[in-house]
Specification:
With 332 residues, the protein is mainly β. It folds into 2 domains: 151 residues, Jelly Rolls; 173 residues, Sandwich (Jelly Rolls), CATH 2.60.120. The protein is elongated, with a radius of gyration of 23 Å. The two termini are 34 Å apart. It contains 2 helices and 29 strands. Helix content is 2%, strand content 43%.
C-alpha cells in the first residue's frame, strides 16, 4: 500500500512575545506535501479477503491523494484510491468495473477526521490501521519528503529560520513604469528576519520594526499601536505593502498611510536600473547570498503574498526550501 501525498536579542525598547518559537509536535502524526512526491509506502504481506484501512487526516488543501493501493502483478490495472477533491472525500475502486463514491461533507478545514484533479496531499496523517492492526507509519514505512506535525495550525506557510521561497528568478517583476509592488502578511515572535528581497531592494524586520531599504533609501515603521510596545514581533498578524520605483520607496503598513523615502534628484542619474530578471526571494535568502551585511532568514508565518497584483499559492512558487505548507503553529 502506498500513502502518496504527492530576549536578549531584542533592544531594550523592543519586546517580543516570550513563547517565541518553541512549539510542541503532534505525536504519531506525519506531515506530507511540503515537497513534490511526498509519500510513505507500507508493504503488506500476502493476504486474501477484504482490505480494511482506517486513518485520521487533517488538511486545508482542497485536492490531494490520501491513499493509493495498486493492483497485483496479475491485475495491474486494478487499484483503489482515496482522495480529497474540491474539499470533499472521494473513493475510486477500479476492478472489473470502475466505481466512485463521494461524501458531501467539506473536509479541507484543518480539523482531524477519521475515515473507515490530481494533486499532492498537503496535510497530516495519523492513526493508520490496516485489517484491524495499528501500523506505525513513521517506523514501518519507507518515507520520502515527510515531516512532523504541530498540534494546532492555521493556513499559512511556516518558516523555521532555515527556509525561504523563490517567487521567480526568470520573469520580469518590475511592472509598467519600472514599479515593483509586493504585499504580504506575516506573524512572528522574532525581531529580525528578511521578508522579501529582490536585488538590493529588501523588506525586513530589524529590531522589531519593518524596514524597506535600497542602498541609502530607507523607510521604517515600528508599529506604535502594536501590543508589544512598538514592535511587530508580537505574535499577531501584520500586513506590509512595499512599492518601489527608480526614484522612491513606499511602505504601507497594516493598511495605514504610505510612508515614503525619495532619493535626491542630483543622485537619481547615478542609480542603476533594476535588473530585469533578478530573483525574488520570500522569507530569506539562499546561503551565501546575504550581501555585504549578515541578514537572518525570517522565522514565523507568512500568507497572502502578491507581487504586481498577482497572488500565487505556495505550491506554485518556483522553488521552496524547507517551507512547511499550511502549518502555521498556534499556541495551545
Amino acid at each position: 500500500m502506498v500513502f502518496l501525498v504527492d530576549h536578549e536579542r531584542c533592544l531594550s525598547c523592543i519586546v517580543c512575545i516570550a513563547q517565541s518559537s518553541s512549539y510542541t509536535l503532534e505525536a504519531g502524526a506525519l506531515k506530507f506535501g511540503d515537497s513534490a512526491w511526498s509519500h510513505a509506502t507500507l508493504r503488506l504481506g500476502a493476504h486474501s479477503g477484504q482490505l480494511a484501512v482506517t486513518l485520521q487526516f487533517r488538511t486545508f488543501a482542497p485536492n490531494g491523494i490520501l491513499l493509493l493501493a495498486p493492483g497485483s502483478k496479475t491485475k495491474p490495472k486494478h487499484y483503489t484510491v482515496l482522495m480529497v477533491r474540491e474539499g470533499k472525500l472521494k473513493l475510486i475502486v477500479r476492478g472489473r468495473k470502475r466505481r466512485e463514491f463521494s461524501l458531501a461533507a467539506f473536509v479541507a478545514d484543518g480539523t482531524w477526521r477519521t475515515m473507515s484533479r490530481w494533486a499532492r496531499f498537503v496535510g497530516c496523517v495519523r492513526r493508520v490501521t490496516v485489517r484491524g492492526r495499528a501500523r506505525d507509519v513513521a517506523r514501518e514505512a519507507a518515507l520520502h519528503a515527510v515531516g512532523q506535525c504541530f498540534p494546532r495550525v492555521e493556513p499559512a506557510a511556516y518558516f523555521a529560520g532555515d527556509a525561504y521561497a523563490t517567487w521567480s528568478s526568470s520573469r520580469t517583476l518590475w511592472g509598467e513604469g519600472g514599479v515593483l509592488e509586493v504585499r504580504l502578511q506575516f506573524r512572528t515572535a522574532e525581531p529580525n528576519g528578511v521578508l522579501f528581497a529582490v536585488g538590493d531592494l529588501i523588506l525586513e524586520l530589524k529590531d522589531g520594526a519593518v524596514v524597506l531599504s535600497r542602498g541609502d533609501e530607507v523607510v521604517e515603521w515600528r508599529g506604535a499601536g502594536s501590543a508589544a510596545g512598538g514592535s511587530l514581533c508580537d505574535g499577531a498578524w501584520h500586513e506590509a505593502e512595499a512599492r518601489a520605483s527608480g526614484g522612491a520607496l513606499w511602505l504601507t503598513p497594516d493598511g495605514g498611510p504610505a510612508l515614503r523615502a525619495a532619493r535626491r534628484a542630483a543622485l537619481l542619474a547615478d542609480r542603476p536600473q533594476p535588473a530585469a530578471r533578478a530573483p525574488l526571494y520570500l522569507a530569506g535568502l539562499p546561503e551565501g547570498d546575504t550581501g555585504e551585511s549578515t541578514r537572518e532568514n525570517f522565522k514565523g508565518c507568512m500568507r497572502e503574498v502578491t507581487v504586481g497584483g498577482q497572488k500565487r499559492d505556495w505550491t506554485e512558487m518556483e522553488a521552496l526550501h524547507n517551507v512547511l505548507l499550511d502549518s502555521c503553529p498556534v499556541q495551545q
